[in-house]
Amino acid sequence: MSTFVPITPDQVTIAVTVYSRRQYIKRAIASALNQTQPVARVMVVEDCGPDPTLQDFVKAEFGDRIEYIRNPKRRGLFDNWNACLELCKTDWLSILHDDDYLAPAFIETMIELSQTAPGCALYYGHYTMVDEQGAPLRQTGPPPVKTRAQRIALPDLFVSNPLPVSGTIFSAPAVRSLGGFNRHSQFAGDWEMWAKLVARYGGAASQAQAASLLGHQGMDRGSAVIERNGRKYALDYVQRKRIAAMLKQQGIPVVIDRRQFQRIEVIPLRMLIAHGVRMSPRILKYNLKLLALSRFPDWKYALGKTLITLLGSGGVRIMSKWWNYHKDGIARRFWGA
User: Fold this and answer.
1) Residues 6+ apart with CB under 8 A from 160
2) Is 130 in a helix, a strand, or coil?
3) Best label site of 191, 214, 254, 282, fewest CB within 10 Å?
4) What residue spans of the chain are helical by DSSP H?
5) Do 55 and 46 contact (CB within 8 A), yes or no?
6) Domain extents for the chain?
7) C-alpha to C-alpha distance for 16 and 56, rounded to whole angstroms
């Protein structure tokens, strides 16, 4: 078992990452500062965003309670996390997205978890998806673990990524030893690193609420961009192949059965209709193959799946083009929007 410096407030940095979303960042920073056990350092790491007044906006509210660092050039989502890692002077680091916020007892919960499950490099808690006003959404992440504190192993990360970014704390030296986050990653850079940490050093999860994640689908979200170009599910499978290779090294043979995975996570029909016209022919065909393996959640999905399958990639592209041309009129007609 690896030995890490114990998690104590004086050994924790919370890094709030931001590019341009000033409408949320005050809430995120306040949640980092107002912990029941205040941490050694709260810093804002701006990825060279387009708003020249953002730093003044933040400092006017929080003053010297935070440090504000602006990258001299844009580094991208995962390499900005590497910037946080480079700037971190403590042994433990937690990255908080600008549109999410931490539970007041997040640090307290992580300290308790690390004492119950010592020796790990990665700890996280449960999270809730919320709307702009902080009310819980029906859309949720994975259910909380079954016990108050539970160690997690690499097979737990094989099917999907149960860890949020906000509400997670990790050993900075451990991440550095693994080469940092994959700056070239388009989508699963967090999932990739969590798998490496768990495989090498171990991880643990708490039932307790750690963070609230804003469930909006802003056009500027990296995940929304990947969904629009249709690459999300392909990139998920790339990461599953990485984990399968790691499990094989541990003597745990696994098979990537796409039919089984698509029973768990079906291809959304709305995604194909809304974004099919923007997908490359190869990616659209790939998603249609996954659609053929997806189960029927209800009769509406079954009917839509049958229609889209009959249309084929060319028909889906035409339907998507028609939908995007007429969607505003349809919304006004049916919802008064």
Assistant:
1) 142, 236, 264, 265
2) strand
3) 282
4) 22-33, 54-62, 77-87, 106-116, 172-177, 189-200, 222-228, 232-249, 258-264, 269-275, 281-293, 299-335
5) yes
6) 9-217, 223-335
7) 16
Q: Confidence band (pLDDT; 50, 70, 90) for 118?
A: very high
Of the candidates 186, 182, 192, 116, the one whose C-alpha atom is nearest the C-alpha of residue 154 is 192
Q: Crossing angle, helix 189-200 and helix 77-87, to 10 degrees?
A: 50
Place of tokens 């992580």: 110
On whether the pTM is more than 0.90, the answer is yes
Contact at 8 Å (CB) between 192 and 185?
Answer: yes
pLDDT of amino acid 210? 96
Q: What are the distances in angstroms from CA 327 to CA 219, 221, 275, 300?
A: 16, 21, 12, 20
pLDDT recorded at residue 328:
62
For 50, the 3-state DSSP assignment is: coil
Number of Cβ within a 10 Å radius of residue 179: 11
The chain-wide mean pLDDT, for the chain, equals 92
User: 178: exposed, middle or buried (C-beta count within 10 Å: 0-12, 13-18, 19+)?
Assistant: middle
Quick: pLDDT tens for 203-218: 999 999 999 999 865 5
CA distances from 97 to 4, 242, 303, 333 (A): 25, 26, 38, 37
Helix (H, G, I), strand (E, B) or coil at 121: coil
- Give the Cα separation of 192 and 239 in Å (integer): 7
CA separation for the pair 10, 197 (Å, rounded) = 23
Among residues 330, 270, 279, the alpha carbon closest in space to that of 304 is found at 270
d(CA 37, CA 114): 15
The residues with which 204 forms a beta bridge, in sequence order, are 123, 151
Q: Which two tokens stand for residue 35?
A: 């912990």
The yes/no answer on whether domain 9-217 falls in CATH 3.90.550.10 is: yes
Phi/psi of residue 328, each to 5°? -65, -40
- Provide CB contacts within 8 A for 267, sequence distance 6+: 233, 287, 290, 291, 294
